[in-house]
Amino acid sequence: MPYYLILALQAFCIYHCYKNRNETFWYFVIFFIPALGSIVYIIIKAFNKKDVEVIQNEITTIINPTKKVQDLEKVLEFSETFQNRVNLADAYLEIGDFNNAKHNYLKAQEDNYKVDVYVAKQLIECFYKLNDFDKVINYSEKIKEKVEFKKSKAQFYYGLSLKELGRLEEAEIQLRILDQRYSNYNERVTLAKFLMEIGKKEDAKELLNDIYTESKHMTRQNKRNYKSTILEVESLLKTF
Prior knowledge:
This protein is 75% helix and 0% strand. By secondary structure, the protein is mainly α. The radius of gyration is 24 Å and the shape is flat.
């Protein structure tokens, strides 16, 4: 482990130990066994029980993605509530089971006199992934004046569904709303490709140039997260 990383790790552990008034012997462990001692301290003292549970749950989800669904099904059997039904639907959506997710969101919505915005947004995603574009538009138009809908993933699916149904002018309006600087990179690339398809190449080029310029000022983490998006932007710009 590089020397400066060990120093940073030691500094964090000492600060955490002091702040939380942990046992004095931990200072000796951190000082005299720098790397290993710091790692042991973090595992035992810096992570609280909740942190450990979160990590365990994430690992379990990766190994057995349906376990969360099974657990939430048991919770729902014990207590049939709106929130428990939505939690189960969310779990199905997370593993890409859009039909079961849709079924449970609709079931949750049955007893509500008014449309729940969160459930509607989740249904919009389900319907889009199931290629039911008419339903996407139907649900989008029920909530499109809500603040939670504007500039959301649901609005993106709304725009794409309008495009699929040939309502190109309306699609452009919805997709352009998502053109926000230093955010929505994937959505903006999709918009640029759409603009190219409908013959607005100069608009598309300008948008791609904006994204490319912004990429030069991204944090290191964002550069990693959006590496494929940036490469696609560079590739698309070469076509002009």
